[in-house]
């Protein structure tokens, strides 16, 4: 049992678990912002231009006060929330990757092969004899 708790402690203190926890917390806060953006700004604007407020779209299944009601407008709102969230995350990742590419040091690729001066075959850069024509090569420094 002690070993189990030691493994759990090791797991919970790893950077990946802590990073994931921070990501979940920030994601929850971001979801609240996107939901508010959609509910308080986008949906009313769509209602002005299109005449439809998605949050009030419902279908009553049956008759009477206890009949179930499908609130498909809320589902449409959730889809819009998802699309906005996905778009914003895509933009953030694209920006972050662009910044990362600018700061990444570009390695100068050193050649790994050279041409044999006798048979013109590609050979290893550090070869002293051509494997194709068996000519002895000069050492390059």
What's the layout of helices and strands?
Elements: H1 2-13, H2 15-50, E1 59-60, E2 69-70, H3 72-103, E3 113-115, E4 122-124
Antiparallel strand pairs: 1-2, 3-4
Structural class: mainly alpha
Q: Quickly count the domains.
A: 2
For the secondary structure, the number of strands is 4
CATH architecture of the largest domain: Orthogonal Bundle
Q: What's the CATH H-level homologous superfamily of the largest domain?
A: Large-conductance mechanosensitive channel, MscL, domain 1
Mean pLDDT equals: 81
Q: Using the CA coordinates, give the radius of gyration.
A: 31 Å
Name of the level-1 CATH class of the largest domain: Mainly Alpha
User: Main β-sheet, in a few words?
Assistant: 2 strands, antiparallel
Low-confidence stretches: none
Tell me about this structure.
The chain has three helices and four strands; from the N terminus they run ααββαββ. By secondary structure, the chain is mainly alpha-helical. It folds into two domains: 2-103, Large-conductance mechanosensitive channel, MscL, domain 1 (Non-ribosomal Peptide Synthetase Peptidyl Carrier Protein, Chain A), CATH 1.10.1200; 108-141, no CATH class. The strands form two sheets. Strands 1-2 form a two-stranded antiparallel ribbon. The chain has a two-stranded antiparallel ribbon with strand order 3-4. A hairpin with an 8-residue loop joins strand 1 and strand 2. Helix 2 packs across helix 3 (72-103).
């Amino acid at each position: 049992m002690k070993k189990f708790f030691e493994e759990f402690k090791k797991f919970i203190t790893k950077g990946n678990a802590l990073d994931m926890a921070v990501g979940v917390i920030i994601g929850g806060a971001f979801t609240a912002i996107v939901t508010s953006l959609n509910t308080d700004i986008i949906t009313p604007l769509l209602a002005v231009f299109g005449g439809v407020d998605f949050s009030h779209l419902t279908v009553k299944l049956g008759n009477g006060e206890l009949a179930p009601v499908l609130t498909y407008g809320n589902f449409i709102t959730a889809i819009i929330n998802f699309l906005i969230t996905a778009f914003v995350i895509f933009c953030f990742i694209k920006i972050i990757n662009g910044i990362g590419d600018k700061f990444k040091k570009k390695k100068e690729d050193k050649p790994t092969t050279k041409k044999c001066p006798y048979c013109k075959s590609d050979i290893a850069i550090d070869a002293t004899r051509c494997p194709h024509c068996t000519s002895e090569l000069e050492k390059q420094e």
